[in-house]
Amino acid sequence: MSTNPLPTTLFQSLLSKLATILELTQSAEGTSTPQGREAIRQVTDDFRRSLALAKSLATGLPGGELLIEDQDDVIDMLVTLRDRKREQLEDFTNRAITAPSRESLAEMKMEVDSTASTPFHVDS
Questions:
Q1: Residue 43's domain spans which residues?
Q2: Best label site of 9, 17, 63, 123, fewest CB within 10 Å?
Q3: What gap in Å lies between CA 34 and CA 44, rounded to an integer?
């Protein structure tokens, strides 16, 4: 069972958490009462934890350590390699495959037969 390396619900929740922080800070009792300040602190802490987790998950994605230019270089290299392989396959399929003629097959058979029927002489 594979787990999603980048859970979208985490990223979707960031916007609603930020909206909650803005609503609390803009409300009349948001910063003026101890309960309001505590609520803002809790929501802000939750937002920071979620943001840190989202950042670490995004950073941990394969290829995330490469700069955009480096990723483009790798993509270009792979495209070039793919194109070369396609050219090689086209060349291979366009080559004429020639089978040996009957005459050359007969000559090969005769050579084998004559070699097999030649007596072996040992000089003493």
A1: 1-65
A2: 123
A3: 15
Instruction: Answer whether residue 122 is part of any domain.
Output: no
Q: What is the pLDDT of residues 4-45, one digit of tens each?
A: 667 888 888 999 999 998 888 888 776 778 888 888 899 999
19 and 59 assigned to the same domain: yes
- Mean pLDDT to the nearest integer, 81-98: 87
Q: What is the DSSP string of the chain?
A: -PPPSS-HHHHHHHHHHHHHHHHHHHSTTTTTSHHHHHHHHHHHHHHHHHHHHHHHHHHTSTTTTS-HHHHHHHHHHHHHHHHHHHHHHHHHHHSPP-PPPHHHHHHHHHHHHHHHHSPP----
Question: For all residues of the chain together, what is the average pLDDT?
Answer: 80
Tokens at residue 6, please? 């980048």
Are 43 and 71 contained in the same domain? no
Mean pLDDT to the nearest integer, 41-63: 88
Q: Please, what is the Cα angle at 58 between 52 and 64, to 5 degrees?
A: 135
